[in-house]
Amino acid sequence: MTALILQARFDSSRLPGKSLLPLGDRPLVFRVMEALSFIPTDAKILACPEDTVSAFAPLAEEAGFSLVPGPKKDVLTRYCMAIRQSGADRILRATGDNPFVFVDAAIAMNKEAAELGADYACYFGLPHGAGVESVASEALLRAEREAKDPAEREHVCPYLYNHPELFRLHRPLSPSCWQGPDISLTVDTADDYQRALLLFERLSSFSTKERNLGANVIAAYG
């Protein structure tokens, strides 16, 4: 069983409240869930801090996501709570500041990871904010037991790729059609948000799914 787990929060120091900023006529976090809904998985979960439930719950329900609240700073534990609740043996990790995630690249990466039995997998060479990570649940549960560095707990996956002697890693260069390492699609600052508004407008003629296909996003960005 595969679960897509999206992490989102309110209290970004560089762009407070960004999850609820409008992108088109819907909040940013909803646009992220809308894009991720096209990735075939058995469950889709929004893993949020406990103090954001009232704001995120209606958006998650509308997008077809289950809600799993957990610790604000220990995001690794939050993910593992979602794993235990869903019973997933593999997860896709996504973050709430990436409304232009490449759906086609995510599907391809997860297929490669599952076929190889990789504990951790992601593409190199994608635009920043375009990718997801595919992770074996047991590997992440082990990280929860063993990781002590606060950064490894806040950012979820570093314990895995910092210990290649413990985990099977798959980190290939992405196919050329999705490459754009000098492009940033994530929303982290006010300037990023203004760029996202412009890009979303440029993609407005596409269907919702086509708006998150890699080649279309790169072309619109240029």
Tell me which oligomeric state these chains represent.
Answer: single chain
Number of strands: 9
Distinct helical segment count: 9
Using the CA coordinates, give the radius of gyration: 16 Å
CA-CA gap between termini: 38 Å
**H and E order:** EEEHEHEHEHEEHHHEHH
Strand order of the largest sheet: 5-4-1-6-8-7-9
Share of residues in strands: 15-25%
The low-pLDDT segments are none
CATH class descriptor name: Alpha Beta
Q: What is the helix content?
A: 25-40%
Tell me what the CATH architecture is.
Alpha-Beta Complex
Q: Biggest sheet, open or closed, and with what strands and sense? A: 7 strands, mixed
CATH topology: Spore Coat Polysaccharide Biosynthesis Protein SpsA, Chain A
> Which geometry do the CA atoms define?
globular
CATH homologous superfamily placement: Spore Coat Polysaccharide Biosynthesis Protein SpsA, Chain A
Q: Indicate how many domains the architecture comprises.
A: 1
**Average pLDDT value?**
96
Secondary structure category: alpha/beta
Description:
With 222 residues, this protein is α/β, with parallel strands linked by helices. It has a single domain (2-221), classed as Spore Coat Polysaccharide Biosynthesis Protein SpsA, Chain A, CATH 3.90.550. The chain is built from 9 helices and 9 strands. It has helices at residues 28-36, 53-63, 75-86, 103-116, 137-146, 150-154, 158-161, 190-202, 214-221; strands at 2-7, 22-23, 26-27, 43-49, 66-70, 90-95, 120-121, 133-136, 169-170. α3 (75-86) packs across α5 (137-146). The chain is globular.
